[in-house]
Amino acid sequence: MSQPDSKSPLKAAPVRLPGQSAQERINTLLDDVFTNNLVLVVITGVMLLTALIQYVFRLPPDRLVVVTAIYFVGSLIYALPKMRKAVREAKALKLGRDGERAVAEYLDTLKNEDCRVLHDLVGENFNLDHVLVSRHGIY
Question: Of 90, 137, 89, whose CA–CA distance to 115 is shortest?
Answer without folding.
Answer: 137
